[in-house]
Amino acid sequence: MKKNFATSIDSEISDNFKKACDEYGLKMNIVLEALMQDFSSGNYSINVSKSGISIKKEDK
Asked: SS3 of 29, please?
């Protein structure tokens, strides 16, 4: 079952993501689902600092 997912995203990030997906010939929702699954599996570390938030894929 598919569920709608809506959120506000920085327009530059959104535009760059759409362009990258187009270059790979993939739909944005497919890529987002894959990234969300990978993130949900605990494969990333998140760092929060005064300069912003960064995310790093963990080596397994």
From this structure: helix
Residue 26 phi, psi dihedral angles, 5° rounding: -115, 150
Handedness of CA 11, 17, 18, 20 (dihedral sign): positive
SS3 content of the chain, % helix, strand, coil (to 5): 45, 20, 35
User: What's the whole-model pTM score?
Assistant: 0.77
pLDDT tens for the chain, residues 1 to 60: 988 988 999 999 999 999 999 999 999 999 999 999 999 998 899 999 999 999 999 876
- State how far the Cα of 33 lies from the Cα of 44, in Å rounded to an integer: 15
